[in-house]
Write a structure and sequence with these properties.
126 residues; mainly alpha; elongated
């Protein structure tokens, strides 16, 4: 009366997989700490952002029209490219660019805020 237990391939596969140690996916690497050369680029980016926001606030008649102002659009495009070149792409630059196209909202210092947001995590890691 040696009855062999029924053979279930699905059950055996589950048992084999349960016997292996769990593989944990690697964590995302922390943001790069700001090195001395990167810190200089961050300060330059902050200065560029502050200057762009100041120009847009001080010269409201030129930039108050938002999306219909080609001077405003040109300045925002150039500033966006400069900031991405200095500190790298960050998703905070996209809403800032869109905000610069909205009349009235472009008077908010969105470039300065975007640079601060894009670089704050790297500053904490340092």
């Amino acid at each position: 009366m040696n009855a062999e237990p029924p053979h279930h391939p699905e059950t055996e596969a589950m048992i084999r997989s349960a016997e292996r140690p769990l593989e944990v996916p690697p964590a995302l690497p922390p943001p790069d700490p700001i090195t001395r050369s990167n810190a200089r680029r961050v300060w330059i980016a902050l200065g560029v952002a502050l200057a762009a926001d100041a120009v847009q606030i001080l010269f409201i008649p030129l930039f108050g029209e938002g999306i219909v102002s080609p001077i405003n659009d040109g300045l925002d495009l150039v500033i966006g490219l400069i900031l991405v070149r200095l500190v790298g792409w960050h998703w905070a630059f996209l809403p800032s660019f869109v905000a610069e196209l909205v009349p009235g909202l472009d008077l908010f210092p969105s470039w300065t805020t975007a640079v601060w947001f894009a670089t704050r995590l790297r500053a904490k890691a340092h």
